[in-house]
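Researcher: I'm preparing a figure for a lab meeting and need a structural model of a single chain. I don't have an experimental structure, so a prediction will have to do for now. The sequence is pasted below. Please return the structure as tokens so I can convert it later.
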Amino acid sequence: MSRRLRAIITSLLQWRRLLPCERRRYAFNLDFPIQVALPSLAIIENLQGDSHVKSNYSRILRHCVGAILGAALFSAYLATPALAQQSGGQTTQSSDSKVLDFFRNTELSGFVDGYYGYNFNTPATRKAGPERTFDVQHNSFSLNLAELSLEKKPTADSRGGFRLDLDYGPTQDIVNSSEPSGPHVFRNIGQAYLSYQADVGKGLQIDFGKFVTPLGFEVIKTKNNWNYSRSLLFTMAIPFYHMGVRATYNVNDKIALAGFVVNGWNNSVATIDKKTVIGQVIVKPTSALAVTETYIGGPQVPNTTEWRDVSDTVATYNITPKISLAGNYDYGQDKESGAKVRWQGVAGDAKFQANDWFALAPRWEYYDDEHGFTSGAAQKIKEFTITGELKHKDGVIARLEYRHDYSDIPFFVKNTSTFKDHQDTFTVGLIYAFSTK
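Model: Understood. Here is the structure written out token by token.
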């Protein structure tokens, strides 16, 4: 074993012994039908709870962070011009080479996302309503999400792969708020799945584990979206994640297919015997145009045969390398107390990339929650958002955003107990992202 590799392993062992043994447990309360109140870090630090749960959680988190740090140290080791050699001119042992080859093909990435938000309705709850997903705090500096991720993509030469996203922050409380087995289950695991590329045609990839939903134009990670806040469709029309099996296949360079069998909507652990199915078709007629159609269907409530169905259509078009458009339409239905309920909405997005460091992104939406199934009140709600983005080449992103939400009913809290039909917010978001690839 080379001196450099031995030094890395020694540092890892010393670092693990210095890890704090403080154990924590998280708690939250539901303020809205699909939202959760976000506890401050000070409250989290002082919560009391079951010692067994806290001990297990602390131990798991230590091991996960230790694994990520190990990957980071190995990535730094790989950055040297050549393989480290032992004194006396001896080359690194073959076992070391296998480990190094593994980490050469594994990407380490991550980000930290935080924001300051101001709600001009100044709600006494200091939170926005259920039409907002993650940027809910009023007049507060807030952490949104911090993530470390490891990914090895399967290839024809190395058919096994995996992905592990370790997430921390209030966003994870919201994402896991409706988890039937309890919000603490897999809270800090955003994604964790194994992959295998079968030797079928151009390569059939099969994944097993927990992964984010394929529905929608926007995603949980702010850095991958055009705006800072999430759309009404993302917030109310579709799920966040799934646990199960998925298969993806690129028929050619214009058509891709995917099929899923999962536990349900936001279910890490199954609560009913029947499964939910997802089908997806991606068509790219040209290099500038892409259309994705996704269907999800299956029973979501125990002791019922009724299915919840959602059709999700997304189209993106790059007019020029600096001007992009996107459209998203969702239609969903379910049954509640024997009566059919429906929801649908449409969103239009644009992004104007002025230069390498500045972009402007407007968004407009219309959402019809005909029976109040997803928002908690039967209403037609609209929103307009304009986001300015400043991006530094070293991975720092700043977004300044104004958003106006308005409904056909008094839906938004004003001060203590008054309700208004509109809400205006201003947000400053800061993101730092990195990757070894």
